[in-house]
Specification:
Layout: H1 16-26, H2 32-41, H3 46-62, E1 68-72, H4 79-82, E2 99-101, E3 104-107, E4 110-113, E5 119-121, H5 126-129, E6 136-141, E7 151-154, E8 159-166, E9 169-175, E10 177-179, E11 188-194, E12 198-203, E13 206-212, E14 224-225, E15 228-230, E16 233-235, E17 242-248, H6 254-271
Parallel strand pairs: 7-15
Antiparallel strand pairs: 1-17, 2-5, 3-4, 5-14, 6-11, 6-17, 7-8, 8-9, 9-10, 11-12, 12-13, 15-16
Length: 275
């Protein structure tokens, strides 16, 4: 019988540099638009960075990204980080960055207006950036409130806006036409939009109301968030904490409206502030 002598063989420690490089090759590169936003806002938090990157990738995958003109994710917890438009994160009126006025509370959960004098200017004029048969607007409410206008602009004859809940109803106005289904709870994600044949209100990805597409032009006043721009004067202040808002210059399909909720809710869940 032949016996082999056992010998302990030592192997070199794993090369950490090589392992790191392999991880980088395996991982998807960060989205350039998400990176631009995070850089502009000065956000380095890894959870926010991951959530934002995945959200942008989701919107692009659903074909929604190009239909939006302004997206406000309200991340970073300060007025400075909350003001930036994800679609164009430049600190100018032309880029639709927000200007906060009055009493706001900014936190990791979003931006909370005080309901008495707070609103945010968007520099976004519906009559210029949208048309009555080609638009969308959304708002994510973290407050179960029954008062105020959450996004709105009225020019004396035409209104554009979205109220998550006011007087027991959700409102979406486009021109002089509106929808106002009953709503018993002001929490969640609300989207008003136009598709090929109707205007709709969706709450949490499901239709709550629909009607014929309006034919009249939209408001020529700048949209406010947290109140209505009432022909140049702020009015109907909201006290709903906003964790997301968007303004779209192109119509959505009903499938895209549901997919937008899926993407937004996944974003909120990653951030731990979903309702």
């Amino acid at each position: 019988m032949i016996r082999f002598k056992q010998k302990n063989i030592s192997y070199p420690a794993p090369n950490k540099t090589i392992n790191y490089l392999w991880q980088q090759v395996a991982a998807s590169p960060p989205d350039a638009d998400a990176t631009a936003f995070l850089t502009a806002a000065g956000i380095t938090d890894p959870t926010i960075s991951t959530a934002t990157n995945e959200f942008v990738v989701d919107l692009k995958g659903y074909g929604i990204w190009t239909k939006m003109k302004a997206i406000y994710p309200f991340v970073g917890g300060t007025a400075t980080t909350h003001k930036f438009n994800l679609k164009n994160p430049v600190d100018t009126n032309a880029a639709f960055r927000l200007v906060f006025v009055g009493g706001w509370t900014h936190s990791a959960n979003g931006a909370l207006p005080n309901g008495t004098n707070a609103y945010a200017k968007t520099s976004f004029i519906p009559g210029t950036e949208m048309d009555s048969a080609n638009n969308s607007v959304s708002f994510y409410s973290r407050t179960n409130s029954d008062s105020g206008i959450d996004i709105g602009a009225w020019d004396g004859s035409r209104l554009y806006g979205l109220y998550a809940r006011r007087s027991g109803r959700t409102f979406y106005y486009s021109g002089t036409t509106g929808l106002n289904p009953l709503n018993s709870n002001g929490l969640g994600f609300y989207c008003g939009f136009i598709d090929a044949s109707n205007m709709y209100i969706y709450k949490n990805g499901a239709a709550t109301s629909s009607g014929p597409i309006p034919s009249l032009a939209l408001s020529t006043r700048e949209l406010y968030i947290g109140a209505e721009n009432g022909n140049g004067s702020e009015a109907f202040f909201s006290n709903k904490e906003c964790a997301f808002a968007s303004l779209g210059g192109s119509k959505l399909t009903t499938t895209e409206a549901s997919n937008l909720y899926t993407a937004v809710q996944a974003f909120q869940t990653t951030l731990g502030r979903q309702v």
